[in-house]
Amino acid sequence: MTDGSDLLRGVDLPHESLRRAVRADLSASAVDVAPRLLGGELRTVVAIGSDSVPVEVRLRITEVEAYHGQGTGEIPDPGSHARMGRTARNSTMWGEPGHLYVYLSHGIHSCVNVVCGPEGQGDGVLLRAGEIVSGTEAAALRRGVALPLRRTTLRDLARGPGRLGQAVGLRHPVHDGIDAITGGERRGARAELWLGPQRDDVASGPRVGVAGVAGTAAFPWRFWIDADPTVSPFRWGRGAAEAAAELASGEPGSTGSAPVLN
Prior knowledge:
Blueprint: E1 19-20, H1 30-37, E2 41-48, E3 53-67, E4 100-105, E5 109-116, E6 123-134, H2 136-143, H3 151-156, H4 161-168, E7 189-195, E8 202-205, E9 222-225, H5 240-249
Antiparallel strand pairs: 1-7, 2-3, 2-7, 3-6, 3-9, 4-5, 5-6, 8-9
Helix pairs in contact: 2-4
């Protein structure tokens, strides 16, 4: 942990091969960028507690989902917040790659997306799960988890996008738009994205909990480190299982109502 005076200066843990991400690393489409984030780290320094002491938390990224912006590729992504164009809510997605789109899910959970692709495209990668490798006590305090941590509790600290956002301390709306490339301060928080070498143990499949056809193998844009225990379990979104059955059978028909980014 740090007192905040040397915020995120990058003293590596055992991950010597990690390096600071630059915008060029994130300039491709979301589906290309997403698997490259696996094994990298999101490092945050956010004040915690009534004394507002800045605390560093490091998250090793183990599961992500790609969401294409409006007009990305030949097939629109019906699961993306950007599918209908730029709005006040999703405006961060249309900015420079490397900013974090921190949005509210189900009116409760602050979820973290890495903006990618060319500026103005609206691509994003949702950080679905990770392993807390430093700052475990701070992450547990934010999650309301009692110490000492059991093995399963430690595994679950950032297992799922809502838990992840809470563990690293990034909150909607105050931290929406924070720049994870420069590490600049935003409302008492700093964030940095670090990348490792390309992995050969990446699995892929349908996105979790996304409704309709956007949650089927037609959009196999969820990527995870194979066999990593912190990866969240798969579940169908509303109407997605039915849409998958229709796709498998080749039968025409509705593929469900318009889905949303989970």
